[in-house]
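Cross-check.
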Amino acid sequence: MIEEVGTSRRVENLAGAREATEIDATGRVVMPGFVDSHTHLLFPAPGTVPEDEEHAAKVVRATTGQRLEARARVYLDAMARHGTTTVEAKTGCGPDESAEIKILRVLSHLKRDPLDVVPTFLFRLPDQEPDRTTKAAAEWVFTDLLPKIRRRRLARCADVVWDADPAHQEYFARYLQAARALGFSCKIHGDRLTRAAPVTAAVGPLVASIDHLEHATSEEAVLLSGCASMTTLLPCVSFNGGGRYAPARALIDAGVAVALATNFNLHHTPAFNMQTVIALACLQMGMTAAEAISATTINGAHALGFAQRAGSLEPGKQADLLILGIRDYRELGQHFGGNTVYMTMKRGRCIYREGGVAPQPIETQRAM
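Predicted model, tokenized:
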């Protein structure tokens, strides 16, 4: 845990500093570890068609938990090397209990090794189903699956894909009410949908964040400024899909609290570098480096209901921090696609350190 933050003289005069290990960060930037508050870490799986949810869920059921966990660790290690210390991970298999529970169990094994993984249950109504089927699926989630997930402590957050079908609005509102009553931190996933419905929902029932507002308007920015929800923007989605970028400048100027995340998804957004997110936010969305850094750290933690533990360098919080190989934090807004991380520290332990480039002995190559 962080015991004190301040000038060198102040910290060096603490009694605990006498036995401490000193890490020289001269000429480098020290900052909080990144909080990636929106990813699709395990679903849909590689080799599946993401639009075919039934087949994708079937692949999850047929894959062992050990294989899913090994795949996730590869992604998490890459995130750690690029400075992420806390990451959210969604399910999303639809009304398939076996696949959803399997993913949540795998995520529970990964919660603190090496990063804090925040599991999120993502509720998605089946497309083009008869009304009675939709109603039955929704009721099953409200009365059976959500309480089961909560009892087993498999998820911290509850998310909902809010589509534009007027017949579904009642189910989404009931889902948020049920999730809040059970103690979940609630989120709204407003991807590629009518804007007004999810925005209004965020202002009504208290949700931690509303995500995917690439098409928000100035009127909605004013509406969002009156709510306590975080607005999570995903610039890598626009970069990979060639679409418009979210109006971050208009949102911030209206007083909206903005977070930034990768939307890591092997099919649509295979991005795990939060430094790239910062660069895109500065180069394409009108944000300053200071705003983008806040959006990828403390605001991301608030989007997960995790800000009491992570997201800033304050006494009493986890020692999740980065040492960057740059002299000024504003350089993060200019470095696109690279990695400036010299060291990643999680809960006071170094989990990644930049190494030199040198020829390796042939024995090492054979071992690899």
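The radius of gyration is 21 Å. The first helix runs from residue 8 to 12. Passed to J.P. for a second look.
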